[in-house]
Amino acid sequence: MSDSLLTQPSLDLGRLRQAIQEEYAALARDPGRGYHFHTGHPLARMLGYHDDWLEGLPEGSIASFAGTGNPFHIGQLQPGERVVDIGSGAGLDSLIAAKMVGPDGQVIGVDMTPAMLEMARKSAIEARPGHVEFREGLAESLPVPDSWADVVISNGVLNLLPDKLAALQEMARVLKPSGRLQIGDILVQQAVPEDAKQQIDLWTG
Amino acid sequence: MAAGFVDFEITWQADVFSGAPQASSAAEFGTQGINFRARKAAHEEEWNAARASLACEVPIKLTTLLGADVFYDAGDKGESEP
User: Nearest chain A Cα to B35, which residue?
Assistant: First the structure.
């Protein structure tokens, strides 16, 4: 990865995190409001989520889904695997992962937005998979032990983090040796000028 | 790839923002949705081997740089190339 991709822009991290939390709290409360990204069932179809993955999952988690890719399209998870979902949001990918790994597996979803954690936990109770939990935390300091996971998934989160190297190092820390990274995210096809990177609105909108 | 990962691959890429209810302020930079995968190196040796394979061979030889200085000095003195 080139240094330019890993350079941390000098913007107010606290303000950025607050703006992101506000955006995604709004999505948790009002998924139908209309955002600069697609949401819910139409987005899941667009990204190639199979109907049977969504079958039986709480509508709230599906409605507030706002991924930018499909971590499961890269490779389905295997029964018994341990999974960390970084930026788990309303919990859809964590619940799909829980289905795939089955009762012998384990899934930990991590998110920094209380409203999303509340929705994800509610959905987990409703879906009753029993082997998924949601923890409050940051991608740059995951509340997960070293070498715990077989797979780390994430969907539309890495692009929101100014310090991508710190997040990747955390992913490596929680993965077992030869553990897999399966990520949906965003790339830009044109370089973003340094002054533009200071604009909070560009990160969140 | 940074942070101890190997076998990085972008497996899918598409415009996932067109037609969204609101316009994105980042659209001018050509934002696209992607899927990518990578694998944590099994051990230090694999990681070091992956880093070595990515290392760029820069064809700079110390003697060439020294030679350039020699050319410069020679020019200053009105001498021909050594």
Answer: A184
- Measured distance CA(A135)–CA(A133) in Å, rounded: 7
A5 domain-assigned: no
Does some domain include residue A91? yes
Q: What is the pTM of this model?
A: 0.84
Q: Under an 8 A CB cutoff, do A186 and B32 touch?
A: yes
Residue A4 lies in a domain: no
The predicted complex's ipTM stands at: 0.87
Full residue range of the structural domain in which residue A189 is found: 11-204
Q: Is B56 on the interface with A (CB under 8 A)?
A: no
> Under a CB-based contact definition with an 8 Å cutoff, are residues B24 and A179 in contact?
no
Q: For helices A114-127 and A92-101, give the axis angle rounded to 10 degrees.
A: 40
Our count of domains for chain A comes to 1
Distance of alpha carbon B17 from the chain centroid: 28
